Amino acid sequence: MDFSERSFQLFSNAVYVLIMAATLFSVLLLLSSIHSSGGELRFASYYGDHQVLQKSPQRAVLWGFGPEGAQVTVSLSGPEKQKTSPVTVTEGVWRVSLEPVQAGGPYSVKAASESSTATLTDVFFGDVWLCGGQSNMYFKTSQIFNASEELALAARYPYVRAFMAALNMSDIELSDLIQVELPWTVPTASSVAEFSAVCWLFGRYMYDILQYPIGLVESCWGGTPVEAWSSSRALQQCGLDRSTESPSPKDRNSVLWNAMIHPLLNMTIKGAIWYQGETNAVYHQNEYNCSFPAMIDDWRMTFNEGSGGQTAINFPFGFVQLSTYQKHSTDDSFPNIRWHQTADTGFVPNPRMQQTFMAVALDLPDLTSPYGTIHPRDKQDVAYRLALGARAVAYGEKDVAFQGPFPEEILTGKTFVNITYSQTVSVTQSKDAFEICCSEIQAPCGSQSQWVPAPIMQCGPTTVQLSTSLCPVTDEVVAVRYAWRDWPCAFKACPVYSASGILPAPPFISNCYQEKRKIWKRN
Ligand SMILES: *[C@@H]1O[C@H](CO)[C@@H](O)[C@H](O)[C@H]1NC(C)=O
Ligand SMILES: *[C@@H]1O[C@H](CO)[C@@H](O)[C@H](O)[C@H]1NC(C)=O
Ligand SMILES: *[C@@H]1O[C@H](CO)[C@@H](O)[C@H](O)[C@H]1NC(C)=O
Ligand SMILES: *[C@@H]1O[C@H](CO)[C@@H](O)[C@H](O)[C@H]1NC(C)=O
Ligand SMILES: *[C@@H]1O[C@H](CO)[C@@H](O)[C@H](O)[C@H]1NC(C)=O
């Protein structure tokens, strides 16, 4: 072989290699283009093995991705059998809603097209609750009082299943989660340890009552304001849609709504629980009486729409009223947020906030919490009170007491103020939990008047009598407030509870010239 022959040989080998490489490359291109147009059939990120889907009378919605134009049929096998009629993948997405399925399982759910299938196994039907908010919802079961006892119980609740969205934000509304933190799991001590304590305890207490599967979807992030969890539509209601002053990226308007709530809208849920508001004590505090109810309204509307009407338009929404915080400044920010959490009514449900329930938590302080006083470790009582609210409001149990005592009448005399409560009360002495506003003029409590303590003098089954002895004799009582402090009492030792001693009276403020209800009377 001479040199030219050799170089020709080399040249043709090189051409051959090139041609082969080009062929391989175009095959790869073709494959990847098929892949990017959908490829395999799959479920959206938050469907998975061990999941709980919403039971009857609602229909569970299932959706996912697939190759454009493919025909997808979903079949259910287990205690009941079902097969949906085929749907066509459009813009990469397929979606079906099942016929209502009774509580129970296990099921396998298979989505099948001509060329591929995706299957979920060990699926149960029950009630799905969404758990949202900031750090007190994020607070892990491993961090609470009696954590080891609680974690030891986890394995006894195989039908309470947990799922957690990852902490992600987005500037646009996403259709699927960016990432999943905890895929649906059968509870173990180690998975529950990392899961939201309030969410877990609520789910397990509800299971104790309902005795059917409960699905828990945790989507929350510490330190976040309500604005981050609200759509711009909801923020607009309160004039907050143009606000730009937020302290950190994850706190910006709508970024968590976009990434961590919007993707969930098409899943059918029973209801939601929420523990948030601490951040709004220092951020748009005065607007929280608007922004919080507006977010609830907007979630209800969009979850209803997203699920094709399956999630109730007024789905039950429970929340925790702020607990305590020992901060260095003294101001009324915590009492104001607690009040705003009820749309300035003091109790829920009320006409502005229907189908809601509230766990009062201001009597559960924790001075030595290693996570800071803002993170009290008793989440058992918080979740228990939420569960009472859910039983009454979400499940319609008529004989479940879930609200603490609230004033129905305020009677002022020369030397006393009598407060009549909506129910029998259990009262302990206090010199300063009640305060009265004394004014020289007949005007709402303001700069011309002052708050002074009003010691409890005596009480009847439904009444508390306060002394006005600390008011100047020439003044008139124009307002009364109760527990109006960041930290109003010691652990479970506030002055007013329900007769059973379980439900604390929520804080209130009532101004005789501004009160919407006609509750003020003169003796
Ligand atoms: C989503 O959150 C996870 C953890 O919560 C994080 O590791 C990941 O980087 C986030 N992804 C984006 C795109 O922000
Ligand atoms: C909300 O609270 C602020 C501040 O206390 C008050 O000025 C405003 O009137 C309240 N708005 C509503 C809708 O109740
Ligand atoms: C979710 O529901 C909304 C409202 O019906 C719809 O616009 C959206 O396309 C749905 N997303 C998916 C992925 O089905
Ligand atoms: C922790 O356990 C002790 C002993 O059983 C009990 O007295 C206490 O109430 C529990 N604490 C909470 C917050 O559940
Ligand atoms: C005020 O309350 C006290 C204690 O319950 C009761 O004895 C008294 O009769 C009440 N006064 C009026 C005028 O209702």
Automatic annotation (TrEMBL):
Protein's name according to its UniProt entry: Sialate O-acetylesterase domain-containing protein
Coiled-coil boundaries: none
Q: Which InterPro entries match?
A: SASA, SGNH_hydro_sf, SIAE
Where the record annotates domain Sialate O-acetylesterase, the positions are 127-325
Note whether DNA repair occurs among the keywords: no
Q: Which domain of life is it from?
A: Eukaryota
The transmembrane segments are 14-34
| One Gene Ontology MF term | sialate O-acetylesterase activity
- What biological processes does GO assign it? carbohydrate metabolic process
Pfam families assigned to the protein according to its UniProt record, in alphabetical order = SASA
Keywords on record: Hydrolase, Membrane, Transmembrane, Transmembrane helix
